[in-house]
Amino acid sequence: MPSLRNAFRHTLNLSTLNQRWWWNDPDCLLVRDTDTRLTGPEVHSAVTLVGLSGGMLVSSDDLRKLNPDRLGWVSLLVPNLGITGSPLDLLKNPMPEEFQVRLNRNGQTWQLVGLFNWSDHPADCCIRFEELGYATGAPLHVFDFWTGQYRRLPDPELVFPAVPAHGCKLLRVCEAHEAPQLVGDTLHISQGAELASWQVEANRLVIETVEMGRRVEGMLWLALVKPPRAATCNADDVAVEYLGEGIYGLCVKFTGKGRIEVGW
After folding, report:
1. Which bin fits 212, alpha (ψ -120 to 50), beta or left (φ > 0)?
2. DSSP state of 148
3. What gap in Å lies between CA 37 and CA 42, rounded to an integer?
4. Do 148 and 201 fall within a single domain?
5. 101: in domain
6. What angle do CA 159, 161, 162 make, to 5 degrees?
7. How many other CB atoms sit within 10 Å of the CB of residue 58?
8. CB 118 within 8 Å of CB 167
9. Rounded distance, CA 225 to CA 206, Å?
10. Per-residue confidence of the chain (264 residues) as pLDDT tens digits?
């Protein structure tokens, strides 16, 4: 962990200069679960920071030997969409614990927030939405990427108890509106930047992805004003699951580009 910690520190502290003066090099990404002392939470932190910092991606594992779950973690970083962010607490802590990325694509505005516990024991992590620029009491969609949990809340802060040592939370946050919205996805670490277009018509929503360069399998969480009657991905039927609070989950699979259509 010491060498990985040093790589994290440099990536966090120099992230504001990424793609301005240079491309950050967060060191080789290790995700394997053999011949390593890295824990699952530490690997999640590494994948999260590599994805949010928008620097180079170099995997030093033999991808043929990775189990499907670990290989899936690497695939979440492909393609590299060059998203960039910065620490919220750069001048507060030697090792920043909060990392923010602001994104705006196809009329959808959201933030990615990484909360890191760099201590050697489990600890609570807290996000205060005013620090992200949201008004007090604003209704928010909050999606926990690594656990796949969704919350809608107007609370000023959210506490995650007992985050594992060297672990993290990766959150997608956006204001709730009376229109179809993406509130989370597990297709890509950016949770929305991989979508090339988002078109809302009278009775349907059409979403197209960028060229992903790989086989994609994941879930979209959509906030819809009307229950969908049908959904397809590249013309194949997709099961729709109602998750409560006007949120619907779509499990999609495709290779290369995806075209998702949802009708109501």
Report:
1. alpha
2. T
3. 10
4. no
5. yes
6. 145
7. 11
8. no
9. 15
10. 555 666 666 666 666 656 666 666 666 788 998 888 899 999 999 999 889 987 677 787 888 999 999 999 999 999 999 888 889 988 788 888 999 999 999 999 999 999 999 999 999 999 999 999 999 999 999 999 999 999 999 999 999 999 999 999 999 999 999 999 999 999 999 999 999 999 999 899 999 999 999 999 999 999 999 999 999 999 999 999 999 999 999 999 999 999 999 999
The answer to whether residue 80 is domain-embedded is no
HEC string for 64-127 = HHCCHHHHHHHHCCCCCCCCCCEECCCCCCCCCCEEEEEEEECCEEEEEEEEECCCCCCEEEEE
- Cα separation, 180 vs 108, whole angstroms: 10
Tell me how far the alpha carbon of residue 203 is from its chain's centroid: 29
pTM: 0.92
- The amino acid sitting at 42 is E
User: What is the domain range of residue 211?
Assistant: 181-263
Q: Position of tokens 């705006």?
A: 104
Tokens of 101: 């990325």
Q: Is residue 61 part of a domain?
A: yes
CA 232 to CA 225: how far, in whole Å? 18
Tokens (6 digits) for 192: 């929305």
Phi first, then psi: give them for residue 240, nearest 5 degrees: -115, 130
Amino acid type, 20: R
